[in-house]
Amino acid sequence: MGLPSQIWQWPAYCLLLWADYFLPTGIRPQGANVKITNRGFTLIELMIVVAIIGILAAVAIPAYQDYTVRAKVAEGLFLSGGTKTAVEEARFSIGRFLGSGPVANPSYGLAMPTSVTGNNTLEIAVGGSGVITITFNADAAIAGKSLILKPDLNTRPGSMVWTCTSQGPTTIDRRFRPANCR
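^ thats the sequence. predicted structure below, dont judge the formating
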């Protein structure tokens, strides 16, 4: 079947090409004698696609799980912003840290530690020397574990720099902590 020489022959030519491609041999129009081959995926092609998807899932799922835990830890740091401000104001206006003992929240005008909560944060407590402890309750990777924010007045005079750590039996795995806490 050659190319049509006249413009009015093109629709018929396109119809024959369509018929060659889509219709079974028994119902093709006259003159459409093009051999049709199977048009499907082979088993090996399907297996390759499944293997690629499996490899991508094996990498993506753990990375996503780590990301969600890091987001939960970030919530605690976000909630501690008001607590840090209260500690800084007290230190710079009075000249010392307030309160003593394990829970000094009321000395800084803050709610009790268990009242400062979020979806993933169990409590935010201020201890002696203005140390803030953020305890988490959500994901199994961080449940019952804590981040500790320590005020540092020596790094930049006239300002307070917060040092973030996680130590002891309530240590949060390094990969779940924000970059400034690693």
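The CA atoms of residues 92 and 158 lie 8 Å apart.
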